[in-house]
């Protein structure tokens, strides 16, 4: 590793990778990933990418309108217009990096429908779109000589120094190293591991949000948490795999414990209502029936079509003993996505000079209080590209001093972390704020979360990933519960 870089990018999902590729090739880039490059929430994205690429049957205004409706009209309209108008060019640039989208028999891009969309505008690669995007962008990044990739590396400390930032990094084996950079893009993903049950990968602990908050960056709307209505209802395991919204888009129906279709009792859009609406009504139906047993049924579709269109879901369900061509799929809501985060402007700039944020850890405001299906990868592409363009335009400013790494005093030895803190945070969050907030549980849980956070911030614990992730989760939980309670 070098001592000084132009840009540090933290995170190897769609935002981190696409941002790196859009930086000028003369820019020296350090790309950090907390585990292997292939592990991110982006890689788990099944459904696809929403974009108006066929104006013969779609329109920017319709995409904006659908996003506003899903977001409860709490969206940032300026950012949303950027998303929708610049999104198609970003999406259509992906095949240039090797990304393959499904095509119909005429060789045209195949587009599917998902909840909340008024048109078929979801480009996809089977049911593994995110994996395809991350895989091909990763290959392109590895081929760039100006980009140094360090996997299994956690950013523990980020401090401002003259001319930029000093970054304390834990390399494989917890080896500490300190480097400097003029700019930093945080693309660290979501906060799913603050809940007992989530569709998020193991790295989604909100580290970037915690580090940005320590630097004085504004954190906004962290309580805008999306619960996906159709996660596979496994008997065991914290990480729940998703049954893509595209399954409902291709005709799956939701059934209650009596195998009765119920969504039209609550909403005229039925199963294709936005995610928050479907999740709330599942919980309402659960309370009404006294059961948490719900199912997706798509057995009326041709078996070969299902195996070809949803190979990942088909295979994963088979591992759980469910054949989606013959069996109903057990589902239940689960934490899925964060709409709030590190507040940024339309160029992904935070209020901290030189600090950018992109992807799920950021708050662009495009989603409002609930994300429209398949707008997530689109947001990651559009706003990481904007961050890269803004940095590239500023990189030659000779008035800025060259940043130097700090003293390294961020690293120290100490006592092992007390056992069970993260587990307790998850229990509090699951009870206090799952689909519907429980205000009594919130009032009980918030003081305990704050006590845990205080312990982590003031104790003399050994610097390591355990401490990083526990502090991140406690910070996220404290922020979310405080917002909901107005405390």
Summarize the structure in words.
It is a single chain. The chain is of the alpha/beta class and 487 residues long. It has helices at residues 14-21, 41-44, 60-70, 77-93, 129-142, 207-215, 245-249, 275-289, 303-309, 311-319, 376-394, 421-432, 439-458, 465-485, and strands at residues 4-10, 29-32, 49-50, 111-112, 122-123, 147-150, 154-161, 164-171, 175-186, 219-220, 225-232, 253-255, 294-297, 329-338, 341-343, 355-357, 362-363, 433-434, 436-437. The strands form 5 sheets. Strands 1, 2, 6, 7, 8, 9 and 16 form a 7-stranded mixed beta sheet that branches. A 4-stranded antiparallel beta sheet has the order 11-14-13-12, with helices on one face. Strand 8 and strand 9 (175-186) form a beta hairpin. It starts with a strand and ends with a helix.
Question: What descriptors fit this protein?
Answer:
seven-stranded mixed sheet; 487 residues; single chain; four-stranded antiparallel sheet; 14 helices; globular; alpha/beta
Helix/sheet category? alpha/beta
Strand content: 15-25%
**Low-pLDDT segments:** none
Could you estimate the helical fraction of the residues in percent?
Answer: 25-40%
* Total of DSSP H or I helical runs spanning 4+ residues: 14
Mean pLDDT: 94
Instruction: Count the beta strands.
Output: 19
* Rg over alpha carbons: 22 Å
Terminal CA distance = 44 Å
Biggest pleated-sheet summary: 7 strands, mixed
**Shape label:** globular
